[in-house]
Specification:
alpha/beta; 15 helices
Length: 651
């Protein structure tokens, strides 16, 4: 992450400049506008683009199968297997895959719908459920929608959805150069991206504090915490399985601290002889040899069509480095400037990338007007993160696609600025660049990512980061997919996002017998929209409900029907309830207390031996244990027959 990210704590959001650009055309036969309000679609993240309500419903049962169209069995075998694995994790049982015709309760997969975009699909819900698409990718995204719907309920209302994205690139960047993220963390986020129909994972693999790839050409530069070739191969394969493209970045010629620590002879020195810890000297042939070794070594590891060279924040005052001016004039003519050495390096690196059949990507801040005789080659994709140098429109006019990676609202900085997710959801669009800039042709903008920058690597743990990006990722998914928003306000959207939850493989989600999991949940208040009531029953130990800072407060769950309750588990955040009651009701009006305390100590409280029944259950807090509100990571409810499936309640 660039120097500005340390200097600016927050950037004020200005009014959005709406731009309707959609990079993917509507399929033939699709309706021109959103479905009428009376035909509201089932709620997903991102929302369905079009929905036509039908009559009846589909129900997933213990005998439901995945049925593949025999005409497309070969093309859909991998998608069906992945879907069966994920659906089995959600259902808690193996789900069979067969070819043939679907029976009631089955889920059918088919291709042969050429009117849909490559990532589009058609979902038909009736006695059985059918996913049709033109490509395997489209069918895969249809399965993600089904997983979300079945996560919320085993019954889905009848109707037909037609769905496709607005932007081709939708995803996440993590700064692995400054903070090492474990393979397990990356694997679960690949699945998480796919669950949200996000398809792009940018690996920023080198920066101030580390170089994170095993190297056979330069093992001396590799940090102790790094990814092996086998790790990368496994992550790439998982990305391909889940339709997530993994794009690496080896940041050059700046931010090379970890590399230059092993090669101090290549550090750029100013006219006074002071060596830079992060700039490599582009006047030295050995610098090009080193960079070429690394690029050529790693290009085959990543089958993605892109390679990111970084190229950000190299030098600000070129007059202090006479060797760069001498190099530029020797290579680009007597009229060249010192900055031409930088531009020449960009094009030299682009030659390496093009030779491998890939497209170069770079950050925008080094590209300015009138400071050189060389310009970055047209065709290089520029990632626009801040208002330095050329505008997005000027970059497009120079022959570049321009991805919108704007600081506001896509930057999540450890120990620093965070996305304004409410503004992201309610106002921003992926075609509004930093400072309100737009493109006359929005199709030149492939999309946007959420960026996790680790300037202060110890400021947050991996788990805190996972929880911190949960809602920003979901708002980004909605905005880049471009469908009609499922709720007008961000506060209402967070409740939907919490109910949709995580991908079925997310750790900590298994709570066999938990009657409250994913049931409709309401509360007396919420501290902010980021802590909705539904977060306390989503099965995710990293999300939470938090109330206002007053007493009394309550959290209420609709169990759907009358249920006997014998055990409740309360997983408190630091803001806990000192005095509270557990109460049951048949009508959410008259309540019966089955447990009461005035000496609660927080932490994980397992309340056993309860006796009572009701459709509704609530925790009713009468006294907070801190100056803050009442805050629960999870509110779990169990009946008397959990038996062998009873879960440990230790954190």
């Amino acid at each position: 992450m660039r120097l500005l990210r340390l200097l600016i704590a927050a950037v004020c959001a200005v009014a959005a400049l709406s731009s309707p650009g959609v990079a993917v055309a509507a399929p033939a036969g699709a309706a021109a506008g959103p479905a009428p309000a009376a035909a509201a679609p089932p709620q997903t993240v991102p929302a369905l683009r079009q929905w036509t309500a039908g009559t009846g419903a589909y129900t997933f049962t213990g005998t439901s199968r995945i049925v593949v169209d025999p005409a497309h069995a070969a093309q859909l075998s991998a998608e069906a297997a992945t879907f069966a694995e994920d659906l089995g994790a959600l259902a808690g049982r193996p789900v069979g895959v067969v070819t043939g015709s679907a029976s009631p309760g089955d889920i059918a997969l088919s291709l042969g719908d050429p009117g849909l975009p490559a990532e589009g699909y058609r979902l038909t819900v009736g006695p059985s459920l059918a996913i049709g698409a033109g490509t395997g990718t489209g069918a895969f995204y249809g399965t993600r929608t089904v997983l979300q719907l079945l996560h919320r309920s085993s019954t889905v209302p009848a109707g037909t959805a037609v769905d496709w994205p607005a932007k081709a690139e939708r995803g996440l960047m993590i700064d692995q150069g400054r903070k090492f993220f474990t393979v397990d963390w990356v694997e679960r986020h690949i699945k998480e991206l796919a669950y949200l129909k996000l398809n792009y994972f940018h690996f920023h693999l080198s920066d101030t504090f580390g170089f994170r790839l095993e190297s056979s050409t330069h093992p001396e530069i590799v940090s102790a915490d790094h990814y092996s070739r086998q790790d990368i191969a496994g992550l790439v394969a998982l990305g391909q399985k889940y339709h997530v493209t993994i794009v690496p970045e080896i940041d050059t010629p700046g931010h090379m601290n970890a590399v230059l620590a092993a090669h101090p002879e290549l550090r750029l020195k100013n006219a006074s002889g002071t060596a830079s810890p992060d700039f490599i000297d582009l006047s030295l042939p050995a610098s090009y040899t080193l960079v070429k070794d690394l690029v050529n070594e790693y290009l085959p590891l990543f089958p993605a069509p892109y390679w990111h060279i970084g190229a950000d924040e190299y030098v600000t005052d070129y007059s202090g480095y006479p060797q760069l001016l001498a190099y530029a004039r020797a290579h680009y003519g007597a009229g060249a400037t010192a900055k031409d050495t930088y531009y020449g390096f960009v094009n030299w690196a682009d030659d390496l990338v093009r030779a491998a059949g890939k497209t170069t990507r770079m950050w925008n801040d080094g590209i300015k007007a009138g400071d050189g005789t060389v310009t970055p080659r047209p065709g290089i994709l520029v990632e626009y993160w801040y208002g330095y140098g050329l505008t997005p429109q000027q970059l497009a006019a120079a022959g570049h696609a321009v991805a919108n990676e704007s600081w506001t609202p896509t930057y999540y900085v450890l120990g620093g600025a965070k996305p304004d997710t409410r503004w992201m959801y309610e106002t921003w669009t992926p075609d509004r660049f930093e400072g309100g800039a737009t493109l006359t042709d929005p199709s030149r903008n492939p999309g946007s990512l959420l960026h996790v920058w680790c300037d202060n690597p110890a400021a947050e743990t991996q788990e805190q980061i996972a929880a911190g990006v949960m809602y920003p990722l979901r708002a980004l998914a909605q905005q880049t997919w471009g469908s009609p928003k499922p709720a007008a306000t961000y506060a209402a959207f967070t409740a939907i996002a919490a109910a949709v939850g995580h991908n079925p493989a997310w750790p900590g989600l298994a709570q066999p017998g938990n009657l409250a999991r994913n049931r409709p949940t309401t509360a007396s208040s919420t501290e902010t929209a980021d802590f909705p009531a539904a977060a306390a029953t989503d099965g995710d130990p990293g999300t939470r409900w938090s109330s206002a800072y007053t007493d009394p407060q309550w959290l209420q769950v609709d169990l759907g029907s009358g249920q006997a309750v014998s055990r409740v588990v309360l997983r408190w955040e630091a803001a806990y309830g000192r005095a509270f009651r557990i109460q049951l009701s048949d009508d959410a009006a008259t309540w019966r207390t089955v447990y009461s305390t005035t000496t609660g100590a927080g932490g994980v409280q397992e309340l056993t031996g309860l006796s009572g029944s009701g459709r509704y259950i609530r925790v009713y807090g009468t006294a907070r244990g801190t100056a803050y509100g009442h805050s629960l990571y999870e509110f779990e409810v169990y009946g008397p027959h959990v038996g062998a499936d009873r879960q440990r309640t230790t954190p």
